[in-house]
Records
---
Amino acid sequence: MRYAPLDGRVDASTVVVGGGFAGLNTALGLAARGVRDIVLLEGERIGFGASGRNGGFVFAGYSLGERALLEKVGAEKARALYGRTVAAVDLIRERIDKLGIECDAVDAGVIWANWFRDPGVLRQRQQLLAEQFGTDWQWLPADAMREFVRSPRYHDGLFERNALHIDPLAYARGLARVAAATGVSIHEGSPASWLERRGEGWTVHTARGAVTARHVVLACGGYLAGLDRKVDRSVLPIATYVMVTEPLGDRLAECLRTRAAVYDTRFAFDYYRPLADTRLLWGGRISIRNRSARAVQRLLRHDMGRVFPSLADARVDYAWSGLMSYARHEMPQVGARAKGLWYAQAFGGHGLAPTCAAGEALADAIAVDEDGCEAFADFGLVSTYRPFGYLAAQASYWNAEMADWFKRRVEG
């Protein structure tokens, strides 16, 4: 379904800038709370950015690990923040089921596969999640791992049952369909050109129109709108890469005997999931460069061949890159920049559940209580010092990649 560009001047209660998960979840959350006259502006098409280009993993947590979250905000706040993403996973599952969103959902969990021989990092995380967050991840000894994921690269693993994987672009378009059915006015091909304060409200201008509203939500992720300098400068747009193989038939079953999605324990990890037509979706790498489809295919085929040598010659039918938004503190930024001016960004490659949680928080803040985003207050708008921040991010990635390589070499 296509949505017409904005044409002319309109008034609204809330205008959401960005047709990805953060914007769509906010619009849906507002509609569910009885807010009317909501306008959503998307510069390209719904799901054009990271929301439609990611691996489709739906699980709890943030880019910032659970231990670091505990250390930064303490046990009570950490549990509350983590709990929001657990609730978001449940809400996503409920929306897919009750709203009839066709997105090839596979409710079969996620496996965290140990790239290294040392089981310590898995055991420590398993214990931390159980004791501090009330979350049970199942231990997979090496023999069980090799039965499910038939690769010599992995050792033991952890299985997160309360997780699923989906076609993210189909899910984004499904959310838009539901939002439009509830009365949200969606406009594609309508990039916001500038933002101005007007009385008690705001006006967002596009090439062919303008929306005046009491509330504006900036939810642009890595595809910055240029509407507020401080909001934009608080994130780094970072690229990641994804490809999809040809249908593999029985070759896929020789590699994967599970419907769960998989990612590994390295900093620069691979992530992949089997598709219904026996294709394998494969993603990985982090870079400050948005590469061509041909370059993505070359890099990721090499990575896939290291894990599954039998697929080294598999044809790649699709490959793409996309920009995620990262904050220096590795947590989402959700809150108010000024009265009536809200933002939701910096989901750092862990977007499906946290964007849902952010949308619910913003909907509460706008429709019910201005303190609805207070849970995220410890992680505000912190400058990334672009362009120098790009160099720091790339150097950090290379250092972590080198540490992973060295640990593997030491283990033999």
---
Amino acid sequence: MAAVTIRNLSEEAYRALKVRAAQHNRSAEAEMRAILEAAVRPEGRLRLGTALSEMSRKIGLTNADVEALEQSRDAHSAEPTRFE
């Protein structure tokens, strides 16, 4: 896990951070982590797994369908194309 040091933070900002942390019942360090996470990982981001799951539900894809596809796949690798 990475560690970050923040230098030259004003006393006003630090006090405000501590107040905000207290309002959320967490430490100043936990509050900083939450702020940074929210800034770089916004709520509205596309989550690929969730999007694929929703799509499969809409078209009615079931686990049995996926298993059937996996069984029908050829166990051998494809022959490479030759350009001779």
---
Amino acid sequence: MSAAEGPLVVGVDSSTQSTKALVVDAATGRVVASGQAPHTVSSGDGRESDPRQWWDALCAALHQCGEAAHEAAAVSIAGQQHGLVTLDAHGEPVRPALLWNDVRSAPQARRLVEELGGPKFWAERTGSVPGASFTVTKWAWLAEHEPEAARSVAAVRLPHDYLTERLTGQGTTDRGDASGTGWWASATEAYDEEILARVGLDPALLPRVVRPGEVAGTVRDGHHDLPFSRGTLVAAGTGDNAAAALGLGLRPGTPVLSLGTSGTVYAVSEHRPADPTGTVAGFADARGGWLPLACTLNCTLAVDRVAALLGLDREAVEPGTSVTLLPYLDGERTPNLPGASGLLHGLRHDTTPGQLLQAAYDGAVHALLGALDLVLDQDADRTTALLLIGGGARGTAWQQTVRRLSGRPVQVPQARELVALGAAAQAAGLLTGEDAAAVARRWKTADGPVLEAVERDEATLERISGVLSDASPLLERGPHNR
């Protein structure tokens, strides 16, 4: 390892399927070591993971970083949002965590919205209208379906909270991740006792919300198998999207489209969002501002599944299709169709497998772009380049589909692992006193090639919108409710 110019920091991305750790030079943003280890997620109607796997993966990823991790002066953990982690009095999981893409709580989400003031109440109170992804609906599901487990819960955490607490011994979270629970009031930036009482959750079971720039704690001695020195500073951490926004050094008005297991569009805003339609989630960011965001459940994983079913490489798309494929393989969040399944319309004798694959890309991107204008502030420049990030961002088929359907220039940052880099920037800010986004801008993480704008493919967008509208009754019933 070559000498670093500044202190070393560690940024962690504990995502749905793996944990990644980066050791970064706080002065330059150079990644000096990295590691990664996988998780498993259950299949079927639910999506669950044992939180202890996340810890084991974190240990494995950091040990892959070698001596550099031991030299780190600060660490921050970013994690998948919304997951419900329930712990007993000894800090052990009561049951596997219910993940963000577990849609079994859709009935509880509908009931909560209806019984507690309707969509407008929720949007004004929490910034978001909760769907099945939100933690509050998962707690309501647990209390209804597994009441004995719910009664034995001594602490409720989000995924990144769980890992941070195992480092420090203290139950903490941050405003960015807390804003995705459905029980944190964005207007007052505090837990909402009325909502908590409605779902029977004692606020004493929740973590303390750490302020932006505040130290969450230090690495405790003798309680872990990690290569950190005792006293290493631990930042608040945050949810994965808020961390990616930090990692890009986002300024207000710059749109981001993230292509991962889920797809998201978001932008930093100085205005507290409150969308009563529920399309835009009014999340807080990790700095004191806001991160209006729209999310789809089905993105790269769904398109890759279609490619596998067709026996094609994911890049083997062909133009000229009039087929519409709505790839709602896991239900859907945007549009809010938790019981939906995939839908194919317009198939002909001369339709090719490559055209079917292109239709899957089009269907995934259509949903995200439909929410983009709602995410941006009204005075935002609609010609600003769209930052394309996530696992799919370097795929040519993804790039060209986003470019064709958005009509915008598309910029692909060269920096990889932006969630972990954002966490590292947050950790670096503890040492330098800088705003974490300013740290990332100094590291030039958003630099990358810009693909020029092309004419927007209005015909394809209108065709997909028409099929979605016509098929709404079928999609709302779902495959199990014919």
